[in-house]
């Protein structure tokens, strides 16, 4: 109950500023927060990155093991994405089995990198039908101030760039760099009072009516999308967000 | 997308699809409202080879109580696939995919339900996929809307749903199973026809902005057709209920008798 009263007060404040064309932190509607990327952050992982997007902080680690391929894709490696919204990162996160929120985060990140072919999975086959590399992409949220989708997506892309396939450890020849194909970058926007804002903070997310995440690759093509929250978008708004995502995605990609 | 390759010719020389459909043609859709006795509302959807049942219970007391919202009802959807609904037996119980689908369908339905009328309650929507052939989330959302209306839950409008996608470099409507497995993109859409709003939207695969534009318009137009079938199912249901329960016929017909 208390949470909702605070949200109502914040909504008033955020709305009043939005009506004047302003955001609480002074950003433009189509402006991302400052982004830092630190790769090879965790030595024990085959690839990793620590990403800060404003006050949101995530660590993404890639671990790779040998295993069996799926029967219907005997020649390709396996990609598994997980997100842990650990209690350390926010008072709203709880321990225990993953809830719908963390499952959605993991699946949206997975969809972006899978459908955008971030990694050439066909090069992760050791022996067709028998043995392939299984990649685990694990997202650890350390500090939560909104927009986990994009922070984790950027973290995954950054981790892939420096990741290796640990072949020597498993007696499969020399280590080699993870075969990276594309950089599918996701950009998330929310709708508040009919206005579209990218890269929402936690407060903005809490009062948002609807959310749309769009991932694009270098060609400008779209590779994944997810609408969330109880609100709705018009067709024009959907196209506006896809255009924003293409433009901002290219800007983010240039920072790698 | 499935990402698998195939020798199947998804679009033939005449521009027709595996099941003979044109690119902008939907699979046959049948909807029946009020198919279950115990539930407060229910609907059955047969969409191509998909068979999906939806049931609504509530508004009823929300458990666990800490989930209650003192200002609104909670619309809680539970999407579930029967183990026998797909070729290889699916392990029973919720998996990550079904959790995600449940979440986005709950959100889409919340937008149209007058949740403020029923504070602290839960409106539980159960979607059971009995036979799956691509497009079950659209079929499920379509069925759930009808089931909510059948339960008498006050709503702004029905949500209609249909997917578009891309196969063999062609933008097509309502992907079938092979098209889903071997296609290039899929865009499931949930649409509120009265207000022209999009309440469910996902996409995966590879699309140019122009292809996405055409696909989204194609899906939205199809939703308007789905909406007509939904309304028709509800009309038939209420006509049948009037006979069943011996409700007096509408006034003008009475006058004719007199």
In words, what does this structure look like?
The complex is a heterodimer of chains A (256) and B (258). With 256 residues, chain A is of the alpha+beta class. Chain A has a single domain (2-253), classed as Ribosomal Protein S5, domain 2. Chain A has helices at residues 2-19, 100-115, 148-162, 202-207, 235-253, and strands at residues 35-39, 47-53, 56-67, 78-84, 125-127, 131-143, 164-165, 176-177, 185-192, 195-198, 210-216, 222-228. In chain A, strands 1, 2, 3, 4, 5 and 6 form a 6-stranded mixed beta sheet that branches. Chain A has a 4-stranded antiparallel beta sheet with strand order 10-9-11-12, with helices on both faces. In chain A, a hairpin with a 2-residue loop joins strand 2 (47-53) and strand 3 (56-67). The radius of gyration of chain A is 19 Å and the shape is elongated. Chain B has 258 residues and is an alpha+beta fold. Chain B has one domain (29-239): Ribosomal Protein S5, domain 2, CATH 3.30.230. Chain B is 31% helix and 29% strand. Chain B contains 5 helices and 9 strands, in the order ββββαβαββαββαα. Chain B has helices at 96-112, 136-150, 177-182, 209-244, 251-257, and strands at 29-33, 41-47, 50-61, 74-81, 121-131, 160-167, 170-173, 185-192, 197-207. In chain B, the strands form 2 sheets. A 5-stranded mixed beta sheet of chain B has the order 1-2-3-5-4. A 4-stranded antiparallel beta sheet of chain B has the order 7-6-8-9. In chain B, helix 1 packs across helix 2 (136-150) and helix 2 runs parallel beside helix 4. At the A-B interface, helix 2, strand 12 and helix 5 of A face helix 1, strand 9 and helix 4 of B. Strand 12 (222-228) of chain A pairs antiparallel with strand 9 of chain B.
